[in-house]
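Reading a protein record of the kind used here takes only a little practice. Think of the row as the fold of the chain written in a discrete alphabet. With that in mind, consider the following protein and its fold in token form:
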Amino acid sequence: MKRLILALILAAAPALAVNPDEVLDDPAMEARARAISAELRCVVCRGENIDESNAAIARDLRLLVRERLVAGDTNDEVIDFVVDRYGEYVLMKPTTGGANILLWGAGPALFLIAAAGAIIYLRGRSTAKAPGADGLSDAEQARLDELLNR
């Protein structure tokens, strides 16, 4: 029974796609590579970071990260190198500066515009007269009486 529970726990754990031939000999360097890989998005899988993805491009990016670390780059330099090559899309957490500020602000701005429009519409409806509240004109009333009396 304990083996079954252990097997279920291990099966439910996220499987990382890092292959044994990619792992660096230095544990500290490997930890840095894993930390960087967790911040970079797979350009094929979109929802996964390169550490979890099995795509060929993710493997290439993992190898690139490790090569840059072995070459002596800092974590920020490695991330900047990958972003320069593939664009800001590869960042799991995009920056809030530059042109991205429009994307970050568009959602709340559109929500506020929609809320203001809804308030104006609902207030206009509450103060509007009901249709036919003025009553019928004399000609309309005469025509109605004529039709009802037939």
Q: What stands out?
A: The chain has two domains: 2-90, 96-127. Residues 10-15 have pLDDT under 50 and may be disordered.
